[in-house]
Amino acid sequence: MRLIPYISLYLAFAAGLVFAVWQLSYREALRQHSLSAQASLSLAADRLTGRLERYRMLPVILVKDGAFLAALEGSTPTRINPRLRQLADMTGSLNISLVDAAGKVVADSAFDTAQSYLGRSLEGRPDFVRAMNGALGFYHLQERIDTPRGFTFASPVRDTQSRIVGALVVKADLENLELHWRGDPETVFFVDENNVVFISNRSELLLRYLGAPVPAASAVRYGNMRLEALPDPQETNQFGYRIWNGGKGRNLPAKALLETQPLPVIGMDAYILTDIRPAIEAAQLRAGLVAALLGLFGALLWGLYLRRSALARQLVLRQEANAQLEARVEKRTAQLRRAQDDLVQAGKLSALGQMAAGISHELNQPLAAIRSFSENAQVFLARGQVEKADKNLGRIADLTNRMARIIKNLRAFSRKEGEGVGDVALGRAVEDAIEIAAARLRSEGVTLGWQRPKTEIIAKGGAIRLQQVVLNLISNAVDAMAESTQKRINITISDSPESARIVLRDSGPGLEAPEKIFEPFYTTKTPNKADGIDDGMGLGLSISYGIVQSFGGDIKGENHPDGGAVFTVALPKGAQK
After folding, report:
1. Chosen domain end from 415, 442, 475
2. Is the N end or the C end of the chain the one with fewer CB atoms within 10 Å?
């Protein structure tokens, strides 16, 4: 019983999803059909207007022949009929007529008197009226049920004074033009201003009207034939697309997508009907597939639910086992982290041990000088020589400041400082590291090349941690040059628009495997012959790499072409003072 709400919710979700898939699929299919129909309609319209175009220009070209003006001005204009028949045969025109200024057809190309226009009046026909006004007129009509539908173009005939004395009318056979697209799968038709289908590749649509009946005044155009409406055509809108319902002809789709395009050049609108049964079937197929998948998924969920009770105990036991395993993993991870911290601290203390003798010398020298200056100051004071005593006291203050800096640097190096990332003066950081390493450099006979720039370079980092990086690089360089005859370290700092750099180069043998130097516990130092203990744990460069990365910078080591190793520390630029 507790499952009934969930089952109902799943069924509602499945029904909604299936309906949504059907809608999306149907809409996408309609969109694709619409794009295809618009392309086909444009092609059909261009094909029709293109074929009519040669008939449109034909009367314009023919009226330049002076024979037509001579026929209109002569007493027997019918003498030009053979010429008109010849031109009609050559151009494929249905009929070519010569009309005088009163609208009477005085010459015609038709052999059959039933098809001839001789003696008929075109006085009120729009194409003739437009031609008599000096423009190219066009018109479409079907005089009788037994005559073909035609499209006429009328061009004015002018005399030598450019006066309009008549018109030349060319009639194109529309039924002949329709033959070129009768086999097209889409239903294409062209509707005139009276909503009458006058051109189509489907005979069921010809001379049918859409909507309201044709006004009686325009019945002449259709040969006084009785025009019938299409059988109950209905148009609906689906997702913004026009859907045509009611195509009951043998060759008409029962439900189709309707697209239209105006053709003002021939005074008609082009229509195309595209069968949407494939779109409906595709949407139904996709929706059915989703329904089947949802049914399969529902059956799978039901099977899983049935097995859930049998597996419940096993799942509980597995969860308990997983919890115990996670606890053991967390414990081992914490132990590993502590061991790693101990190794890092041991490495730092080892470095301090290596420098202890030199550092004690660095402190003993100032202490001895302080004792000497203080005794001299007492003597000078006893003699009343205050200025000399004051100089000695100033020297004592300088020496104590120097000792304080050394002790401060040692304390900062020996423990993990928690300062954040800020602006650091690179020159000051390098000199602090050099001050700590100075005693060892002298004892090892290392020449240091360093010149602090006049303009301080500011980078983003931590002063104490950066000092630790520089000191570590100096110590590694000293170790690397232990067997070298010439021992020299050059330190330079520089900047660019993007970064600030510290570059340290030594005169040692170089790096054996530059790609491995920043890996933890990787070292090339050999065991000490005296005690068999390694000089290093391989953590110094790994620690330095992590420190520089935390600043958002980068550190790399490589061999110099002229010998020795080169380490470059690149840091983001800070705010310049």
Report:
1. 415
2. N
Q: Is 322 helix (H, G, I), strand (E, B) or coil?
A: helix
* Rounded Cα gap, residues 492 and 32, in angstroms: 67
Exposed, middle or buried by CB within 10 Å (0-12, 13-18, 19+), for 139?
buried
Count the neighbouring beta carbons within 10 Å of the beta carbon of residue 40: 18
Residue 217 has pLDDT above 50, yes or no: no
Percent of the chain's residues with pLDDT above 70? 82
DSSP H helical ranges for 355-425: 356-383, 386-414
Asked if 520 and 434 sit in the same domain, the reply is yes
Q: What is the mean pLDDT of residues 150-164?
A: 92
Spatial distance between the Cα atoms of 516 and 510, rounded to a whole number of angstroms: 13
User: What is the Cα–Cα distance from 150 to 146, expressed in whole angstroms?
Assistant: 12
Cα–Cα separations (whole angstroms), residue 311 to 37, 226, 299, 315, 373 = 58, 82, 18, 6, 87
Beta partners for residue 150, in sequence order: 141, 173
The tokens for 107 are: 């010459």
Give the CA angle between residues 5, 9, 10 to the nearest 5°.
120
Rounded to 10 deg, the angle between the 356-383 and 386-414 helix axes is 160
**Banded pLDDT at 136 (limits 50, 70, 90):** very high
Number of H helices, E strands in the chain: 11, 20
Please state whether the predicted TM-score (pTM) of the whole model is above 0.85: no
Q: Residue 260: which region, alpha, beta or left (left: phi > 0; alpha: psi -120 to 50)?
A: beta
The total number of structural domains in the chain stands at: 3
Note whether residue 107 is domain-resident.
yes
514 in any annotated domain: yes
Both 124 and 98 in one domain: the answer is: yes
Lowest mean pLDDT among 216-220, 299-303, 332-336, 356-360: 216-220
Answer for the pair 247, 269: CB distance below 8 angstroms, yes or no: no
End-to-end Cα, the chain, rounded Å: 76
Say yes or no: 450 and 563 in one domain: yes
The CB-based long-range contact list for 260-266 (8 Å cut-off, 24+ gap) reads 260/41, 261/38, 261/41, 261/42, 261/45, 263/45, 263/48, 263/49, 263/190, 265/49, 266/48, 266/49, 266/52, 266/138, 266/140, 266/151, 266/190
Q: By residue range, what is the domain housing residue 430?
A: 420-572
